[in-house]
Design brief:
The structure holds two protein chains of two kinds. By secondary structure, chain A is mainly alpha-helical. Chain A has 13 helices and no strands. The longest helix of chain A is centred in the first third of the chain and has 32 residues. In chain B, β1 and β2 form a beta hairpin. Classes of the chains: A mainly alpha, B mainly alpha.
Chain lengths: ~270, ~300
């Protein structure tokens, strides 16, 4: 009983943080003037979303493609790079590692202006592939750092045994090391997915074709739909579709998430 | 962290240090590092050089490169009507956000540090918003603040974004909501690294709770607090999504940030990539100087 005020205070605090999320879910299905859902409860707002321009499936697909490619590129590049940095001596190694970390020092906006020009030159303008490549580059400092420390934490004897057994470095990597660095890969993949799924300014600058917009951009554009009248119901539904995968992933992989924050504290 | 970075690489298993072996090792190492090197070269090093070139060139969005014009872009950038108001607003926003977020995050970290199930629930509740993207969070608050759909009418605030001050504070509230958990987590990790012995010693010396907090806890959290400050200052100076979505820079251009100026110069209105590049270089320079200063302040404090 003595701790009652503590529970009341912290409980309301938790509620304060959860409230906007709960409200968005609630408001997206509740009746509201000026939206598709004017009386009774239902999913009409999601219907508006589904019918918006190219349709929500197109935007969802764009987002899934971009996030999938970004995760794939980030995992493969940082797996090989982390292995190289942790286990090999080669000229230019420290310079390359520092240059990779230096990506963190340069603001997104500074890089996006020349990247817009560069992607135009190499024919990747306005493409989901180009977008995924750029998003992968933004992930590399964290991913490379994370994979390097993951490999360094693996006892060298493990690899030695594999090499004595006649495995080459590729087979040692795939058979013996890959399972050992799996937690690091999960963290890197999770962060790459969340970053790519949620990024706003990169597609805003690099994607000019409305049909190729990933979901955050499409939902932001949807607000100016008809003659400046904003359909808040559809916006709320869009927020739910955007947020739900992130929240579910977070709840399922909370420990990986926290681990990433701790070891990746250098990430902006 | 630095310890792992500078640890000498372990010798390659079974590798006698013959020149041939060493060359083979270097080649294999480079082979594995090649994808990283290509990404860093094409999508980072080349763009950095390109933005430097663009900043001194007459470079239109559609017209492309029309030759050098230094220092015109820089003169135009600083001479823009909105340049100094944007700088001032961005700095003001950064100071408010950083102070509020760090004080609040520290309070939350102290509040939820116990190893009970209730504390674990609280930590999760406070952390959930940081799983959202900044753009999604901004869209959510956009609906939350709109007069038509807002459930916050009972607060009697009226318009949340109507005046410059309200727009600023409403955005700060969004950012605090979205990021408090993240900074709480960083501080919580540092708090849990403080050994119980230190607190015991303080108690034996007869220090009260407040005195223990000020002379034991805070000094031991110094590097974590410094890290939070650096992350928060850098993030806030580069603010874009939240203002682009929530306030559109309004009312009356009162909430235009520097990154919004860059975006507007390039894609909305001026269509002048040279001008945008010059602004980008200015931001990059300011950030590098600031970070160098912060690192010096950090390392000076630690020695």
């Amino acid at each position: 009983m003595r701790r009652m005020p503590y529970y009341v205070f912290t409980g309301s605090l938790a509620l304060l943080f959860l409230f906007p999320l709960l409200w968005a879910g609630f408001a997206s299905v509740s009746p509201q003037g000026g939206t598709a859902q004017t009386d009774g409860w239902g999913f009409a707002n999601y219907g508006t979303l589904a019918d918006y321009q190219a349709g929500i499936w197109q935007y969802l697909l764009n987002s899934v493609i971009v996030s999938g490619l970004t995760v794939l590129f980030t995992l493969s590049v940082s797996l090989l790079g982390g292995y190289a940095f942790a286990r090999f001596r080669f000229p230019g190694k420290n310079a390359l590692f520092l240059l990779t970390l230096a990506i963190l020092m340069v603001p997104y906006a500074t890089l996006l202006i020349p990247l817009y020009v560069l992607l135009n030159r190499i024919g990747l303008q306005n493409s989901l592939l180009g977008l995924a490549l750029v998003l992968t580059m933004f992930q590399l400092p964290f991913a490379t750092f994370m994979m390097r420390i993951s490999f360094e934490a693996v006892p060298i004897e493990l690899e030695e045994a594999a090499l004595v057994d006649g495995c080459g470095s590729v087979r040692a990597l795939l058979r013996v090391l890959l399972p050992a660095v799996r937690p690091g890969l999960i963290t890197v993949g999770l962060f790459a997915f969340l970053a790519a799924w949620n990024d706003f300014i990169t597609p805003l600058v690099l994607i000019s074709d409305a049909d190729k917009a990933p979901l955050p951009l499409a939902v932001a554009n949807l607000r100016q739909q008809v003659m400046g009248i904003i359909d808040y119901g559809a916006t709320e539904a869009g927020v739910v579709v955007l947020a739900l995968p992130c929240i579910l992933l977070f709840l399922a992989l909370q420990r990986q998430y926290i681990r990433g924050f701790m070891s990746g504290a250098l990430k902006g | 962290m630095t310890a792992t970075l500078h640890k000498p690489p372990p010798a390659r298993p079974g590798a006698a240090p013959t020149p041939l072996r060493r060359r083979r090792q270097a080649l294999t190492g480079w082979a594995y590092a090649t994808p990283t090197a290509l990404f860093v070269l094409i999508f980072f090093a080349v763009p950095v050089l390109l933005v430097a070139q663009m900043s001194v060139s007459d470079w239109g969005l559609f017209a492309g490169n029309r030759g050098l014009n230094a220092p015109e872009n820089f003169v135009d950038a600083v001479g823009q009507r909105l340049f100094w108001p944007a700088v001032w607003f961005t700095v003001k926003y950064t100071v408010i956000t950083t102070v509020l977020l760090i004080v609040l995050a520290l309070g939350l970290a102290l509040l939820v540090q116990e190893a009970t199930r209730w504390s674990a629930f609280l930590r999760t509740a406070i952390l959930v918003p940081s799983a959202l993207g900044l753009a999604s969070a901004s869209l959510l608050f956009y609906a939350l603040y709109s007069p038509q759909s807002s459930p916050l009418g009972f607060l009697g605030v009226g318009s949340f974004l109507g005046t410059p001050d309200r727009a600023l504070w409403s955005t700060v509230a969004l950012i605090v909501w979205r990021f408090a958990g993240f900074y709480m987590l960083l501080l919580l990790v540092a708090l849990q690294g403080i050994s119980a012995d230190v607190y015991e010693a303080a108690e034996m010396d007869g220090a009260g709770r407040w005195r223990t907090f000020v002379s034991v806890t805070l000094p031991l959290l110094r590097s974590a607090l410094a890290l939070c400050t650096i992350l928060c200052v850098t993030g806030s100076l580069l603010a874009f999504d939240q203002f682009y979505i929530l306030t559109k820079g309004g009312p009356d251009n009162s909430t235009v940030t520097i990154v919004q100026l860059i975006y507007n110069a390039a894609f909305a209105g001026a269509n002048d990539l040279g001008l945008a590049a010059a602004l980008s270089i200015i931001v990059l320079g300011a950030l590098l100087i600031l970070n160098a200063g912060q690192f010096r302040w950090l390392s000076g404090k630690e020695s």
